[in-house]
Automatic annotation (TrEMBL):
Subcellular location: Endoplasmic reticulum
Main location: endoplasmic reticulum
Residue intervals of the EF-hand domain: 493-521, 531-566
Protein's name according to its UniProt entry: peptidylprolyl isomerase
Entry EC no(s): 5.2.1.8
Record region (Disordered): 539-571
UniProt keyword list: Calcium, Endoplasmic reticulum, Glycoprotein, Isomerase, Metal-binding, Repeat, Rotamase, Signal
Limits of the PPIase FKBP-type domain: 52-140, 164-252, 276-364, 388-475
Xref: PANTHER family: PEPTIDYL-PROLYL CIS-TRANS ISOMERASE FKBP10, PEPTIDYLPROLYL ISOMERASE
Recorded name of the encoding gene: Fkbp10
GO cellular component, one term: endoplasmic reticulum
Function (record text): PPIases accelerate the folding of proteins during protein synthesis.
Signal sequence bounds: 1-26
Length: 571
């Protein structure tokens, strides 16, 4: 048939229908079923309402002319019920099936699927076609289970939540349609509670089990595991499914002790810290979610304290027991061994688990002596250094973590000192005693024999020092308080022998010449020194009592005679 013929036939049919009184194309006549217009469908539809599901929805009901006959919005409450089991008018039962949460539909319900030829007295006339604007808010079934989705999880998870654990978590709580009803973030603090003891709704009690600190979860809880038929206040309607987005900040059990993780232990550990030891250590302190609350590194200063004495929180007192010098250790402390329910300041919340990453710099005990290790001792060593000897030695000084402090090799000559003259720290002085020339030692000097709590320039307070020493040479010393001693009895006519030109007075040059001659002849010896001339000059000054540049017979006195007179002068 030609296209023109088909067009003429269509026009004839339309004219015939009009003559016979048939409805026009714009008037479909009585509806046989519900007309559904899905005018908004959410992009994500996890579930569609099925026969037997419990649903919650809002609606406006109108007639064809737009006149409202009912509205859940006007009552301020959603409608809850079971779909597809005859509890609703047939048209609504059919029109709600297959809806997603947050989907919006226009429903046209013909009279025979609504209130029929009877209607509702005073509200809906007989044979009324009903128009509904519906939004689906919630869908659930009595066979539903908790829906848990892990959003993120830390790589390290040594432990997960169990019943009776105390948890601290942040959450956002919404209804299934996304309406927020509560948030811990808005309160500025975590929600803290025990798990599995009935303090939470059943769904949350179950939903938190197995979580790691730092894990994020989405937990969808059906009403029968939440607030059920009663709802909660004005924010959670009856029969509402709840959606919680949860971040577990930390958790512990009241029975927990301190947990230790040995991150790095030196191969050689000669000694471990015990109660009463004084420890110097660096640390980073974090919460379980990684939030840094304190760090000794930021202050560029170690934390120094006794352990086992109650000067620090109990958990750290326990956690530092048995550490080695140089060890890196992680100490995880439950709140009952830290700052408890009250926390500390504005950085440590109440009931917070604390994690300390610790590096032990050194430790000592106030009763420690100098630790001496002989590295090399020459054979045939018969003469050793003694108190008051003058020694020359090389040294390298460092902290126990290897930090270099001082070295005699940085200078042209070895270090020189008279042992026992209080010119070096006590620990080094002790370590240089009883050494042979050429001997090498390692000395570990505790701070009470070193630079003490205050330290010194370049030396931290309470630091244990490590010295590598080599004795180069030594000279026999003289008793304390003496600059010169006789090997035998001094001359009976000492002044006359010292007065070389016999003019009745002894100037400095004459005094120096005489003393040098006595040393050269082996009759006496000077206090060892790198500058003998200064020693002789000091001797002369001590004898020149009126400081007139010469010694008279009345001024010259032997040291032994002065000691008897309680006068501490020289010669």
């Amino acid at each position: 048939m030609a296209p023109g013929s088909r067009c003429c036939l269509l026009l004839l049919l339309l004219l015939l229908l009009a003559v016979l009184g048939a409805p026009a194309l714009g008037d479909p006549g009585p509806l046989e079923d519900v007309v559904i217009d899905r005018y908004y469908i959410p992009k994500i539809c996890l579930r569609e309402a099925q026969m037997g599901d419990f649903i919650r929805y809002h609606y406006n009901g109108t007639f064809k002319d737009g006149k409202k006959f009912d509205s859940s919005y006007d009552r301020g409450a959603t409608v809850a019920g079971v779909v597809g089991v005859g509890r609703l008018i047939t048209g609504m039962d059919r029109g709600l099936q297959g809806m997603c949460v947050n989907e919006r539909r226009h429903l046209i319900v013909p009279p025979h699927l609504g209130y029929g030829s009877i209607g509702v007295a005073g509200l809906i006339p007989p044979d009324a076609t009903l128009y509904f604007d519906v939004v689906m808010l919630d869908i659930w079934n009595k066979n539903d289970k908790l829906q848990i989705t892990t959003l993120s999880k830390p790589e390290r998870c040594n432990r997960t939540v169990e019943n009776s654990d105390f948890v601290r978590y942040h959450y956002n709580g919404t209804l299934l349609d996304g309406t927020p009803f509560d948030s811990s973030y808005s309160k500025g603090s975590t929600y803290d509670t025990y798990v599995g003891t009935g303090w939470l709704i059943k769904g949350m009690d179950q939903g938190l089990l197995g979580m790691c600190a730092g894990e994020k979860r989405s937990i969808i809880i059906p009403p029968f595991l939440a607030y059920g038929e009663k709802g909660y206040g004005t924010v959670i309607p009856p029969q509402a499914s709840l959606v919680f987005s949860v971040l577990l900040v930390d958790f512990h059990n009241p029975k927990d002790g301190v947990f230790l993780e040995h991150l790095e232990v030196p191969e050689t550990c000669k000694r471990r810290a015990v109660t009463g030891d004084f420890v110097r250590y660096h640390y980073n302190g974090t919460l379980m979610d990684g939030t840094l609350f304190d760090s000794s590194y930021s202050r560029n200063q170690t934390y120094n304290t006794y352990i086992g004495k109650g000067y620090i929180i109990p958990g750290m007192d326990q956690g530092l027991q048995g550490v080695c010098i140089g060890e890196h250790r992680r100490v995880v402390i439950p709140p009952h061994l830290a700052y408890g329910e009250n926390g500390a300041g504005d950085k440590i919340p109440g009931s917070a688990v604390l994690i300390f990453d610790v590096h032990i710099i050194d430790f000592h005990n106030p009763a420690d002596p100098v630790e001496i290790e002989t590295v090399f001792r020459p054979e045939g060593c018969n003469v050793t250094s003694r108190h008051r000897d003058f020694v020359r030695y090389h040294y390298n000084c460092s902290l126990l973590d290897g930090t270099r402090l001082f070295s005699s090799h940085d200078y042209e000559k070895p270090q020189e000192v008279t042992l026992g003259a209080n010119k070096v720290i006590e620990g080094l002085n002790s370590g240089l005693l009883d050494m042979c020339a050429g001997e090498r030692r390692v000395l570990i000097v505790p701070p009470h024999l070193g630079h003490g709590e205050s330290g010194a320039r370049g030396v931290p307070g309470s630091a244990v020092l490590r010295f590598e020493v080599e004795l180069i040479s030594m000279e026999e010393g003289v008793p304390e308080g003496y600059l010169f001693i006789w090997h035998g009895e001094p001359p009976a006519n000492l002044y006359e022998q010292m007065d070389l030109n016999k003019d009745g007075e002894i100037p400095a040059e004459e005094f120096s010449t005489f003393i040098k001659s006595q040393v050269a002849e082996g009759k006496g010896r000077l206090m060892p020194s790198s500058d003998p001339e200064k020693v002789i000059a000091d001797m002369f000054q001590n004898q020149d009592r009126n400081q007139d540049g010469k010694i008279t017979p009345e001024e010259l006195k032997l040291k032994s005679d002065e000691d008897q007179e309680k006068i501490h002068e020289e010669l």
